[in-house]
Amino acid sequence: MSYKVKNRLHFISYTVLFLVVLFYTLTFLTTIGWILIVFMSMTLIVSFIGIKLADVEKISVKLDNYLLTSKKETITTEVTIQKNMSGVVFFPVLKISISELGFTKYIYGYTGKRETIQIEWQANQRGHYEEIQVELVSRDLFYLFLKDYKQNVTVDWNILPQTFTNTQGLMRLFQFVFRKQALGEASYDIKGYRTYTHGDSMKQVDWKVSSKQQEIMVKEFSYEKEELPIFVFYGQTSFYFEAMLDVFYNVYNQFEHSPTSFYLLGEGVDEEKIDDVMSFATIRKKETIELARFLREKNKSAIVFVPELTERIKQEISDCDSSLTIQTITYQDIKEGGDIA
Question: CA–CA distance from 250 to each of 20, 169, 244, 261 (Å)?
Fold first, then answer.
């Protein structure tokens, strides 16, 4: 119901009551009746003047332009109000409401001067906010009439997934699978032979081969390195989407400075390596994700975080190169292991 409809209903109700009192006074000619008539008339006049001066559209609202926090964390932000047009304003009662912040405040006798209010707020929903709606409601002194005005304030607020206090349990879930590639640490596999040069270790000399070649030959070993798998979040449409994203975010924080790479697959993000935590605020659920294609393109073993394992995901993993090791972790695995806190 709009505030104009409410005002009409209040005015009609007040008029009916006024007529009843007037009829009673004229009928019985009582002193109390005349006092009530004068009081109700003055109340109506004061209310009309009050609501006329209380023009909420002349009030501008500003919020902190940039904000970065995590879900469930309590932070302090500010809302600033002031008159943005010329003319006299007076608000017997001004109500400020911001539903996204669960914030409501009443200001009495506001005259349009700049006023900053601190808000202690706990973010309960992850996401990227470009606009926050602020509702201003003005009332007269007797609460007979009101004016309602909603402003959309432009912001750049980023709410990241929840940070866990203890992530050690999560690390037990990762069965790292390594692939051997050229370059890295020496193994016992002989790659070939070459002529001895100054500085080579005598332990590398192959005397049997040297006697055949009539010169000192040293063994060359093949080299290999251990490569960490990539970490992938599969942003499927699921009831456990947000909970699993919380888990993935905490794993990312744990390995942020390691050589491994992290990827988010979903709506609102690209398929590039994560280099900015803002991606955790912008990602949304996606109905169809080409997991098999992504894994084939990366051609690396992977640990895939899925909110819940479906037949489609199983099929996509089976379509990948058999030389790659793909490990899936579901939210059910996390819950059963009791690895979040």
Answer: 68, 11, 10, 14
